[in-house]
Amino acid sequence: MLQFEAQATALGYGAIAGVDEAGRGPLAGPVVAAAVIFPRDFRIEGVDDSKKLSPAKRNELFPIIKQTALSYGVGVVDEKIIDEINILQAALLAMKRAVEQLNPAPDYLLIDGNQRIDSVIEQQTVVKGDSLSHSIAAASTLAKVTRDRLMEEIDRAWPQYGFKKHKGYPTQAHRDSIRQWGPCPAHRVTFKGVKEFLCSPPGKRLEAIKTATTDEHG
What we know:
The chain is an alpha/beta fold. The protein has 2 domains: 3-156, Nucleotidyltransferase, domain 5 (2-Layer Sandwich), CATH 3.30.420.10; 158-217, no CATH class. It contains 9 helices and 5 strands, in the order αββαβααββααααα.
């Protein structure tokens, strides 16, 4: 998982940051990104795409990554901005914010996905980079754990939605809770599965529930 870092090193770059985000798919909460710079040829055993790791393994790796990195940064973009600029632009903004937190600053970025961020720093996009690059995978773990912990804080404010369990993703239980209680301030109100339930009059609310149920079951 060091081939992309090695290629950048061969081109003369010294401080290479892996960058990734977590939270594009949920119906609630922020999108969070992280950026990580490691020493040259350094690797932590067990680091992989955070989606492939158990919560316990991610939490185990979280402090190790922070302690061994030369530099790391985290960027958070909340649900209000997501609704204003759309989730793709919010994810790119979170990655930009994470990179701006790095000290020392990087001279090369490995970005997960196929979208470049707004930065003068040289960068390379890597599709499925969290499975191919060690530094991107480490960034994905920092982003995922940070976001999960933020969702646990949100759960304490609105426990009826079960955020601690599903972290805002559109599980059946989460969707059912939105139908029952309506959206809370942490929900992304432009997202399908949320915006249908913004109507306050009971008649419109019932109509939205029927429509959503029909869409789900045909």
